[in-house]
From TrEMBL:
Gene3D superfamilies with a match to the protein in the record: Aldolase class I, Chorismate mutase
Keyword annotations: Transferase
UniProt-recorded name of the protein: Bifunctional 3-deoxy-7-phosphoheptulonate synthase/chorismate mutase
Regions annotated as coiled coil: none
Keyword Kinase belongs to the record: no
UniProt xrefs under InterPro entries: Aldolase_TIM, Chorismate_mutase_GmP-bac, Class-I_DAHP_synthase, CM_dom_sf, CM_II_prokaryot, DAHP1/KDSA, DAHP_syn_2
Domain of life of the organism encoding this protein: Bacteria
A Pfam entry, by short name: DAHP_synth_1
Domain Chorismate mutase: residue ranges: 1-90
Nucleus keyword on record: no
Length: 358
């Protein structure tokens, strides 16, 4: 075949390709419109009936030379890409989405800023047990220049016979110890009815992993003007995690810190599996600051330091760990808490890593 004739045929192919491109993008715009309609109607994006109808039309009208199966596979891909397009369009409408707000949200905890580029720590006991205990811990936290203290007063435990926390008495003890050293308090609240009363004691409301999809609680904390630390559920996908944050923000509260705390997998070497790559994914998909809980993700004191280094290196805004005067006699999670000597060593080793990778 002469070269000139080949060029002519290739030119025809190029023209058809350009027409296909225009038609595919025209189709995509209609798909986006369909997605918006489905969203208002709360209709599922995937419609297998429509897909089957298309496949039947291809089988009836295909005259070759492509086989019917080949064409059906091509349109199968178009269908899948269209679903993703509707998904992306839905995500761009989310209040927590980076597409909705390109700039980072900075959470202000009574003067301590999380998400402004300066990496922070929050330390404290797993559970508030006594005033003496939290006072001693608060003193150590302050000594290391940390402004945030954590401590559980409401403890959702796997067994109903395990220590469940001191409730509001524990919050009061934690608040008093924190005030003695000018620290800000992060503590978990479990039920919507307790939120209003808890505001007198906490600077940050923590929504725990088991409550990530407690939608009534999410909506209730969304109505407050307090920052919220939202932990990822034990088996939650990143998408589910993001939608949980959307519940909070949809009620008006944009002061949200997302906390990766490990997810449940088949691995037994650690308490959970730290999904460290969730940090950059969440920071890419949302404008919210991201924390990493190195305690519940590992469940092992010997892994706290390397996990914390990894969290800082990958861009976490906040690292959470636990400290107790005597972990051996702690009422909960003794194997993952540091004593004061170990805490000193931890901070000495981790401080040189802060803001190094920003």
């Amino acid at each position: 075949m002469p070269e000139s004739q080949l060029d002519v045929l290739r030119g025809k192919i190029d023209k058809i390709d350009e027409e296909l491109l225009i038609l595919l993008n025209k189709r995509a715009k209609i798909v986006e419109s369909i997605g918006k309609v489905k969203e208002t109607q709360s209709t599922k994006r995937y419609d297998p009936v429509r897909e089957r109808q298309l496949f039947d039309r291809i089988a009836q009208n295909n005259e070759g030379p492509f086989s019917t199966t080949a064409l059906q596979q091509i349109f199968k891909q178009i269908f899948q890409v269209s679903l993703e397009l509707q998904k992306d369009d839905n995500r761009s409408a989310l209040l927590v989405s980076r597409k909705k707000k390109p700039e980072d949200t900075i959470v202000n905890i009574s003067g301590i800023k999380v998400g402004d580029g300066k990496q922070q720590f929050v330390m404290g006991p797993c559970a508030v047990e006594s005033y003496e205990q939290v006072y001693q811990v608060a003193e150590q936290v302050k000594k290391h220049g940390i402004g945030l203290i954590r401590g559980g007063a409401f403890k959702p435990r796997t067994s109903p016979y395990d220590f469940q926390g001191l409730g509001f008495e524990g919050l009061e003890l934690l608040r008093n110890a924190a005030d003695a050293f000018d620290l800000k308090v992060i503590s978990e609240i479990m039920t919507p009815s307790d939120v209003e009363k808890a505001l007198d004691y906490v600077d940050v409301i923590q929504v725990g992993a088991r409550n990530m999809q407690n939608f009534d609680l999410l909506k209730e904390v969304g109505k407050t003007n307090k920052p919220v630390l939202l932990k990822r559920g034990l088996a939650a996908t990143i998408e589910e995690f993001i939608y949980a944050a959307e519940y909070i923000m949809s009620k008006g509260n944009d002061q949200i810190i997302l906390c990766e705390r490990g997810i449940r997998t088949y691995e037994k070497a650690t308490r959970n599996t730290l999904d460290i790559t969730s940090v950059p994914i969440l920071k890419k998909e949302t404008h919210l600051p991201v924390a990493v809980d190195v305690v519940h993700s590992t469940g092992r004191r010997d892994l706290l330091l390397p996990a914390a280094k990894a969290a800082l290196a990958i861009g976490a805004d906040l690292v959470m760990a636990e400290v107790h005067p005597d972990p051996a006699v702690a009422l909960s999670d003794s194997a993952q808490q540091m004593n004061f000597e170990q805490f000193d060593s931890f901070m000495k080793a981790i401080n040189p890593c802060v803001n190094v990778f920003n």
